[in-house]
Amino acid sequence: LISIQSTCHLALDSCRDDRTCLSDLKTVIHDCDIDRCDKPSCMESLKTFYRNESHEDLSLDAALCLCRKTSSRHDSCMLAKEKLHPICAQRPPDSSTPVTEEIGGFSPLPACHTIADLCKEDPECRSRLEFFEQSCAVDSVTRKCASKMKNCRTALLGIMGTPLRALCACQGSDLQQLYECLGWQRLLWLNPCVGGF
């Protein structure tokens, strides 16, 4: 079993040491504060942060960062991850309900294929999704990635701050919809081609 290394706090520290990255990060932290979450502003700030080519390597480290599971609410990695991947941005689309007020802490999550369908209605999001699919798809027979890891990681930065990064789930008794949903969930959230994402 491979032991996961916690890296979000390291990615955050590296960003803080870079003037441009820090400036973009401050905007994200301000616009994505969970207590006054304004999702459209938060999403715009994340797009700026993750697509700024002057700190692309730092953005990639932030996008791919991981934290080992812990029960500590004050874990430095988990606190850093909340800044780099704000809950505000991951709220389901059109969710006016604060994340903390529903049973279990979350309002019901939308199906992953509906998130993809929502993205396809917006021309910019659709083109970024198409590039991500072309760059990060896994061949079902060979299990090889459709493109080089660098292309896939660039495509990943392109979908940060879009509806594609909203939390989603797959459930239900309609097998065709469930299969489609699981396909999108694998591509968007459990994709081995991205490498650590």
Structure description:
The protein is mainly alpha-helical. 53% of the residues lie in helices and 0% in strands. The chain contains 10 helices and no strands. The protein has helices at 8-16, 19-31, 39-51, 56-63, 76-84, 87-90, 112-120, 123-136, 149-159, 175-189. The protein is globular, with a radius of gyration of 17 Å. The model is unreliable at 96-106 (pLDDT under 50).
Pick out its properties.
53% helix, 197 residues, mainly alpha
Layout of strands and helices, then pairs:
Layout: H1 8-16, H2 19-31, H3 39-51, H4 56-63, H5 76-84, H6 87-90, H7 112-120, H8 123-136, H9 149-159, H10 175-189
Helix pairs in contact: 1-4, 1-5, 2-3, 7-10, 8-9
Structural class: mainly alpha
The quaternary structure here is single chain
**Estimated share of beta-strand residues:** under 5%
Mean of all residue-level pLDDT scores: 86
**Mind telling me the C-alpha Rg?**
17 Å
Secondary-structure element order, N to C? HHHHHHHHHH
Helix content: 40-55%
Total number of helical segments?
10
Largest sheet: none
How many extended strands?
A: 0
Shape: globular
The rounded distance between the terminal residues' Cα atoms is: 18 Å
